[in-house]
Amino acid sequence: RNMILGITGSFGSGKTTVAQIFRKYGYKIINAEKIGHQQYDKTSIKDKVIKKFGKKILTNGKIDRNKLKKIVFYNKKELKKLNKIMWPEIIREIKSIIKKSGKKVVIDAAILIEAKALSLVDKLVVAKIDKKIQMKRLIKKGKYTKQEIKNILSSQLPQNKKLKYADYVIDNRKSIKHTEEQVKRVVRALASRQTSKKNQ
Fold first, then answer.
1. What is the pLDDT of residues 134-174, one digit of tens each?
2. Dist. CA 143–CA 186, nearest whole Å
3. Whole-angstrom distance, CA of residue 143 vs CA of residue 133
4. Whose CA is closest to 182, among 102, 138, 132, 126?
């Protein structure tokens, strides 16, 4: 069967950029966050989320992600509650996409380790970043306040702990060219592993 790679890293580590580079090498990208957003339209999920957080998160009868964000990104406990509802669904969806895709797959997910979803992947790539650069990049995006960023980061496993799970580490502290070089090396390493397996 085809290689399934997981790409993770803490918030703002540039893991999505890394995932996109893998696309050049014939990998299909599965973005866990996007899948998560799609789940909110499912009645079963919607009902569970409303039950947990109340009708205040709705706009015109739909879950308003911005309203939900204001709750969960300021409170670690609330974020954990939301993840508990969402992750089993996200994992189920990822599994079904993998089944249908029939090609090499990259799962781009911030909390792959925290969600105990490592069994989904053959190898794990962790994107590494410097705290200062990370903060700068996230604030520059303008989507989150400094406090929101701090809360999101504190709800995730710290980078040094994530790195312990890594089969491959991509250092995102320098230029995009530097990142691309590293991805190329990982792709080569994976290809030679698979060839040597076939020849055994």
1. 998 899 988 888 888 888 888 889 999 999 999 999 999 98
2. 31
3. 16
4. 126
Count the Cβ atoms, other than its own, within 10 Å of residue 27.
23
CB atoms within 10 A of CB 90: 24
Strand 58-59 to 62-63 pairing: antiparallel
Kindly state the DSSP code that residue 181 receives in the 8-state scheme.
Answer: H
- pLDDT for 49-71, tens place per residue? 999 999 999 999 999 999 999 89
Amino acid at 144: Y
As a whole number of angstroms, the distance between CA 27 and CA 166 comes to 19
User: For residue 77, which amino acid is it?
Assistant: K
Nearest Cα neighbor of 33 from 107, 121, 127, 113 is 107
For 141, other C-beta atoms within 10 Å of its C-beta total 10
Tokens of 139: 């604030």
- Residue burial 152-177, b: 16+ Cβ < 10 Å; e: rest: bbebbbebeebeeebebbbebeeeee
Count of all residues that appear for the chain in the document? 200
